[in-house]
Structures are given as C-alpha cells and as structure tokens.
UniProtKB/TrEMBL annotation:
Name used for this protein in its record: Chorismate synthase
Any one GO biological process: chorismate biosynthetic process
Cited function: Catalyzes the last common step of the biosynthesis of aromatic amino acids, produced via the shikimic acid pathway.
UniProt GO MF annotations: chorismate synthase activity; FMN binding
Length: 431
C-alpha cells in the first residue's frame, strides 16, 4: 500500500509523469510552527538537477517546489491532515517509447505490468524515485517535530560507491553534521574519498553504465523506550522503512553482518554511567536498539543500494512478447543513486522515530494517569508522570535506596497535589 506509519502516518501519491506528486500526513501534533520553507530544504537536497551535481546525477531538472494545501493556519499545524503537492514539470515521455515494449532488466516494468495488467510506462510511473518526494516532505515535518520535542538529530552520508568505502569508524558519529556531508556533491564527509567516489560514478556514466553504493545513518538523542515488541521492533520497522526506498538491497544495524564473525565477549555492549549520570554503553554494537527497543545510544545503520537499472549500454534481453531484443535505454538517469538518497533515508528514519515516539507517549501518559498505588517495582523514569523520558538514570528498582526514595517521594507529592485539586473541584461542584 502507499501508506506508512500508525500514529504519524503518511500516504504518498503520484507518478513520474503525471501532474505531480505529494502526500497526506496525518497525526502531526497541533500548534507546531510549520512553513513550506521547513519542508523545502530536504526536498531541494533530493531534487534532480542540483547545482554542481549534474555530472553525477540525472539530467532531469525539477524545481520540486512544495505547496502546503491543508492542515496549517497562520503558520501553525492544526493537528488535521497536512496535504502537500509538488508539480512535475521537466517530463520527456518520448524517451520511454521503446521501454513501453521492452521491460527494463532489473527495473519494475515487468512486475508492475504482471501485477496490474496496466501501468504508467512513462518515466517508471509510481516505481520512479519521484514517489519519494511525498515521503521526504512528510519526513521533513517529522524531523522538525523530533528536533523540537526531543532534540533528535538524524544525519546520513554516503559511505560507499562501487568498491570505494569510508568505514563508519572513520566518521565522528557524535558530531557529524549535514553541513559536513553536503560539502561535497557526492555527500561523503571525507573529501578525499568523495573525490574517488565521484571519479567512480563518472567512469560508470562514461561507459553508459551505473554503479551501486552504501548509505550510513546515525540518529542521535533518541529517547529510551521506542519500539514495539514483538513484531514492530524498532529495527524491524526501520528495516521496513528503509527497504521500501527504491533500489535498496540490504539493511544492517549496529555491527550488522560483521557481528556474525565476533564472539559475545567482544560484541557485548557493557553498561556504565556517564558524566551526566546517564546510563550508556561503552561500545555500540547493538546500534542503539536492544530487544527491539531503543536504549538511548545513537541508532546506527547502513543500507546497500544497487546500481540503477536504466543504462545506455546495450543489453541482450526480451520484450513483453518474449522475443529476444537489445535494449539501449534512452532518457536521463542517475548513474548512482546514493548522493540523492541521503535526504530520503533521513526523512524515512524520522517518520519511523516520530511514529514510535507518539506511540510511546500514548503509553507513558496513560500509565501516568493510573490510580495512586505505587509499586516499588514501578519506577521506570519514563513512567513517572512527566513524559520527558530522557534516559537519565534516576529511578530504576535496583537503584540504591536514596534514588528510589526520591522517585517515590516525587510521585507521592504529585499525587497529593492531584488529590488537592480534586477536592477543590468537588467543593466547587457542591456549591
Ligand atoms: C534517488 C533515487 C534515484 C533513482 N534514479 C533512478 C534512475 O535514474 N534510473 C533507474 O533506473 N532507477 C533509478 N532509481 C531506482 C529505481 O527507482 C528502482 O530501481 C526501481 O523502482 C525498481 O525497484 P527496486 O530496485 O527497488 O527493485 C532511483 C532510486 C533512487 C532512490
């Protein structure tokens, strides 16, 4: 289906060559300041035809200017569905004439035709990466909410093109910024490696070919407790979101496949308390998620993107009737998708985290409204009534007596205050 998320939910619409593409986002909290400029930043990082990137991306040039159609008033969200629209402008349907008869090898033409018996052949229809505009627009709103509410920061970068790699341990995960990533058009934060990656993409393009790549991502300041075991574990939903991006072929979190070659004694993330009194782990092979639930450490994951299917190089294949033929694809295509995939990965990650935050907020606030009995085992800071569960290590049951006492005293005072308010209301009602 074309919808994703439960509490923070996006539905995208549109094909590559129809009037335009966009989305409806439902569940955005009310009273948040929001303008088109907030959304445009990520759309402009995604758009084809970005200044300076012509030699490594498609020649299609779209402004991708977003229009907010609904869900805001005087620059603030209403809490009602937000509709957003981007017009398709730079279309060349005639480039796709031949491809309407010949399914592009490893593209979506064959499967769409078989599934629906009819398809928008021009420009790849809905399988085109233009569909991701709706996700990016919705995710840009999710990012804003996450930043303002929890201080969440999401940064992704290109860590591989062909066989050129920048290992994650060469990147300062605590500080890497989008500004650093955007210093080079290929979006790899190491300029020397970025240059090599650029040469690799240009060489593929010169051969009328394409090349694959890897995107890494870090999500910082993630609240503890996000993720819904058992089937909606945080990494499972992240994998779902990421693998729904066109051209993805792999997802790994934390140690990923490398973890399979390690021993438990090397791989276990030891707990300790940092200078701010926050429970942390000394290593982060878990990638910030344990048991499907965020543990407050940065979430770190990587994704493999295949070489785009549409290439000018002659390929021996078959047309829709099964007759052998040779396809030399025309049109304007990305020789490598990873530089443009960066904002898509970030905004999809934001959609997942925002949805999970709203889910956890619902649980936390409903728990906080339970009747007064206080169980000595019920003192998780996230459940203590204020919903700012920031991971501060202050109220777990196995803590020393003093911390537990202060947590219980705080809760007792809150309940006494609540009782006082209720008595006042009762008195009022009696009058
Ligand atoms: C940012 C981005 C740009 C893309 N550009 C192209 C392209 O120019 N040509 C192409 O064949 N595929 C491109 N793709 C990939 C196709 O959309 C994708 O391969 C196709 O829908 C088939 O889906 P699948 O690869 O997930 O099986 C792009 C993907 C992304 C994320």
């Amino acid at each position: 289906m074309s919808s994703f998320g439960t509490f923070f939910r996006v539905t995208t619409f549109g094909e590559s060559h129809c009037a335009g593409v966009g989305c409806i986002v439902d569940g955005v909290p009310p009273r948040m300041q929001l303008s088109e400029a907030d959304v445009q930043v990520q759309l402009s990082r995604r758009r084809p035809g970005q200044a300076g990137a012509g030699s490594i991306s498609t020649g299609r040039n779209e402004e991708d200017a977003v229009q907010i159609l609904s869900g805001t008033e005087k620059g603030f969200t209403l809490g009602t569905p937000i509709g957003m629209f981007v017009r398709n402008k730079d279309m060349r349907p005639h480039d796709y004439g031949e491809m309407s008869q010949i399914p592009r090898p490893s593209h979506a033409d064959f499967t769409y035709q078989m599934k629906y018996g009819f398809r928008a052949a021009s420009g790849g229809g809905r399988s085109s990466a233009r569909e991701t505009i709706g996700r990016v627009a919705a995710g840009a709103i999710a990012e804003k909410f996450l930043k303002e509410r929890y201080g969440v920061e999401i940064v992704s970068w290109v860590s591989g093109v062909g066989d050129i790699f920048l290992p994650d341990d060469k990147v300062d995960l605590a500080n890497i910024s989008r500004e650093q990533v955007d210093q080079h058009m290929v979006r790899c934060p190491c300029l020397e490696t970025a240059e090599k990656m650029t040469e690799c993409i240009k060489a593929a393009r010169a051969d009328e070919d394409s090349v694959g790549g890897v995107v890494s991502c870090v999500i910082r300041n993630v609240p503890i407790g996000l993720g819904e075991p058992c089937f909606d574990k945080l990494e499972a939903v992240l994998a779902h979101a990421m693998m729904s991006i066109p051209a993805t072929k792999g997802f790994e979190i934390g140690s990923g496949f490398a973890g399979a070659r390690m021993r438990g004694s090397q791989h276990n993330d030891m707990f300790s308390i940092d200078a701010q009194g926050k429970m942390v782990t000394e290593t982060n092979y878990s990638g910030g998620i344990q048991g499907g639930i965020s543990n407050g450490m940065p979430i770190v994951f990587r994704m493999a993107f295949k070489p785009p299917a549409t290439i000018g190089k002659a390929q021996n294949t078959a047309d829709f009737t099964g007759s052998s033929t040779v396809l030399e694809a025309k049109g304007r295509h990305d020789p490598c998708v990873v530089p443009r995939a960066i904002p898509i990965v970030e905004t999809m990650a934001a959609l997942v985290i925002a949805d999970m935050c709203l889910m956890q907020e619902a649980r936390v606030s409903s728990a906080a409204r339970l009747p007064a009995e206080v169980s000595p085992y019920f003192c998780d800071p996230s459940m203590s009534g204020d919903v700012s569960y920031n991971g501060t290590f202050s109220g777990w049951p196995n803590l020393s007596g003093e911390s537990r006492k202060s947590e219980l005293t705080k809760r007792k005072n809150e309940l006494e205050e609540k009782l006082k308010q209720l008595n006042l209301q009762l008195d009022e009602a009696d009058k």
